[in-house]
From TrEMBL:
Annotated keywords: Activator, DNA-binding, Transcription, Transcription regulation
Domain HTH araC/xylS-type: 175-270
Protein's name in the database: AraC-like DNA-binding protein
A Pfam family assignment: HTH_18
Amino acid sequence: MKDRVEYKRSNEIPGLVLSEARFSDFRFERHYHLDYHVALVTEGVQRQGFHGETLLLTPGSIQLMPLGEVHDGISAGDESYTLKTFRLSPQLLNGLGEEISGQDRFPALGGAVIQDSSLAGHLCRLHDALRAAPPGSEPMKVQSEWLTLLDRLFVQTRMVKPQFVKGTLTQVQWQRVRDYCDAHLAEKITLEELAAICNLERFHFLKLFKQTVGMTPHAWLVRLRLERACSLLSHTDRCLTQVAQEVGFYDQSHFNRAFRQAFGVSPSRY
């Protein structure tokens, strides 16, 4: 199979570049990066030279590669391997550090390889979702999962201490969130916007929201959109396309899938 590699800059997460590659003959000569890499081998095996050691990266492996570290990479055998990579700019990494660690500066992150098939699977699906996200899609779900998974990853490697967020949103904050979502339901609503109206960082808001409501902000917002859609379908003669747009679904097929998943029938049969 011919070698291939694709890159995509994330619209939802500025400073993040995604890459997916399938290599059999291509060899990474000794090199380094000026950004931080979180890499996953999803098929095959990559053999890598790093710090004078030989590493074998297999499916389920997650590698953290710091800035400036010299390494190489090649297929470990005659078969090809597939590699998915999150490339985080220094600016993005520093911003995440403040949110996840609760400190002004992110602790120095070293290199590591961990074996966690569950976390690798979640990261792989997030990578696919970020690469496939069409223009105008709702960014909140992937933004929330991005923060949650990186927190889990960095805590698991003991590079940051877990930040325990206690308590809930205040009644005033919760009312602000509901009022804002009601007023902007037809628009894209981001995690940053909801956190800002509560005067909180995104990660802190995410934790407090779930402890307050019992759902993630994205799941709660999707349900609100669907409940409003039910009301419009029951009391107006708007067509399905109008209803989908008025409650904030970016296309009809997305609306149909979400509605069927929630209520067991398509919007046209409601």
